[in-house]
Amino acid sequence: MTMIESLVAIVVLCFGMLGVVGLQAAALQSNKEARYQASATRLARELAEMMRGNKDIAIETSSTANPYLVEFTGTLPSAGTDCFAGSCPTTKEVAAFQIRDWLARLDAELPGARVSVCVDDAPYDSGGLPVWDCSDSGGTTVVKIGWTQMTTDHAATGSSGVGSGGLARAVRPGVVLPLLAGSSE
Question: Is residue 153 part of a domain?
Answer without folding.
Answer: yes
